[in-house]
Fold this sequence. Notes:
The protein is mostly helical. It has two domains: about 80 residues, Alpha Horseshoe (Serine Threonine Protein Phosphatase 5, Tetratricopeptide repeat), CATH 1.25.40.10; about 80 residues, Alpha Horseshoe (Serine Threonine Protein Phosphatase 5, Tetratricopeptide repeat). About 80% of the residues lie in helices and about 0% in strands. The protein is built from 13 helices and no strands.
Amino acid sequence: MSGGIRELYERGRELFEKGNYTEAEGLLKEVIKDHPGYADVLNKLGVISHLNGRYEEAVEYFKSALEINPKYTEASLNLAITYNEMNRFEEAQDVLEKATRIVHTDSGNLDPYVAGKLANEHYKIGNIYFDFGLYEEAVEEYRKALKLRPGLADVHTRLGVALRYRELYDEAINELSKAKQANPYYGPAWVQLGLTYYMRGLPGLAFEEWENALKKNPNLKEAKTFLHLLKREE
């Protein structure tokens, strides 16, 4: 990189990091005009385009960055996020799966930071499927997230609820129990486990679960409500 281009890049990077994207964009475009092979610059331009709502343009920048460096995980994640914003969920999923395959180290273990980022994207895609009532697809995404980052109480809980909606009660109970083990103070896991017991035809266990939930968190309104309703039924 020549001295003049390096100065443009450094100034553009500094402005980008400060959030001055309008000025940064102009400088980074000057850099990429003469040196189109800089994946980092393409990724930054993609981020700026995304933030300005120019999603198609952002996609092209991220894809170009990945053509130069297929292991550029940040560009992969940014591309997946952009596809999500465009409701192109299958393409987002494909990008995440490809990134997961590529960024494995020689030992077969994924860098923890990268694993966390990828897991979070799978979790968000799972939530989108869940919100549309596509529980089977949601279950698949939650499982992918947990494969990357085991022991996330919120993901186990969401997986358990999705399984319950598919009437797979025993699997749901297993996942919700894992959520409790991962974080005994995560109230939603206790509440949802009690509800799953109740729907499984085990009101005694449901009652016990909600009572224990309130011992952990006396302000857990859902547990109070369910206990009140259960007592009224009795």
